[in-house]
Amino acid sequence: MSVASGWTRRRFLVATSAVGTTALAGTAIYWSMRDTWTERLVQALGDSPATREIGRVFVAAHPDQARPEELREGLQRSFAAGDRARPLRDALADKIEEDYRFGRVAQVEDWVLSETEIRLCALAALAAEG
């Protein structure tokens, strides 16, 4: 399963875990302002070239779902109010796991991703495009 040159799902997950762990090591990041929490979620997932490529593929296939404000609002609705008092990385991991458990997944090329991962990848791609 490859999205971008040489990026397998395993390599993507290892790289994003390393990036997320490094970015958040020693710090519990909590949501604060509405404008920045989705950007923090993207960083926690791992804003890498592979993340943005997955987002670009999704946006190209679903332009009707590629509006940043709607992606942000969808993410806000999907997280429970109690999640806002938890460390960001923990809440994100639990949300992704919940998406898989309840079948809230979609295929992007050969990748099967949770709705949360797809929204974050799409936001990363749209942010990179300016």
Provide a descriptive summary of the structure in words.
With 130 residues, the chain is mainly α. The protein has one domain. The chain is 62% helix and 6% strand. It has six helices and two strands. The protein has a two-stranded antiparallel sheet with strand order 1-2. The longest helix is centred in the N-terminal third of the chain and has 16 residues. The chain is globular and about 35 Å long. The termini are far apart.
List the helices and strands and how they pair.
Layout: H1 9-24, H2 34-45, H3 49-61, H4 68-78, H5 88-101, E1 105-108, E2 111-114, H6 115-129
Antiparallel strand pairs: 1-2
Summary keywords:
two-stranded antiparallel ribbon, 62% helix, 2 strands, mainly alpha, 130 residues, single chain
What is the CA-based Rg, rounded? 14 Å
- Low-confidence residue ranges: 21-34
Total beta strand runs? 2
Strand percentage: 5-15%
> Whole-Å distance between the termini?
28 Å
Bin the helical content: 55-70%
* Average pLDDT reading: 77
Q: Count of helical segments? A: 6
User: What characteristic shape results from the CA principal axes?
Assistant: globular
The class by helix and strand makeup works out as mainly alpha
Major sheet strand order = 1-2
For the report, how would you describe the main beta sheet? Answer: 2 strands, antiparallel
Order of helices and strands: HHHHHEEH
When the domains are counted, the total is 1
